Structure prediction request, 167 residues.
Amino acid sequence: MTALSYQDFTLKARVSDLEKMEKALLAINATYIGLDWQRDIYFSVAKGKLKWRQGIIENLITHYKRVDENGLEKTVVYRYDLNPTPEQINELYHRHGEIGSFEKERRIFYLNKVKIHLDTIDKQNFVEIEAIDRTGEQSAGQLRVQCLVTKEKLGIEDADLIRTGYF
Prediction:
């Protein structure tokens, strides 16, 4: 299995006051993209996670694994199909067994090239920061720094960090 040129560093944290976090994002000039209602369906694979995300803004199939690197997680992506066809979705069900799903409300923001989500799942709130490079133009070190700088700007404490997977 060959990884794609896509790379990112990710962190996720619990948030007690989602509106306060949203105001902090707007104060640092983050751009609000919109509110998405998402259902993530996970499928059985030998390595990593295979997910079909159904959403209004984000609709994709992705196969990835996350590797811990000193408190942040680096994502290795094997597949990333935006707006999958019915045939691609049917293939998921025929080749892989569904192992679970969950739904979330997601507010999506960008701060330059860093993507930030404010997620609500079962009345719990989270912030996720993803410093992403899809072109191979940035080093892993640069992405890591972008993620940590955004964490600092938003006042996220280490005690609030969690592993990035909800499922």
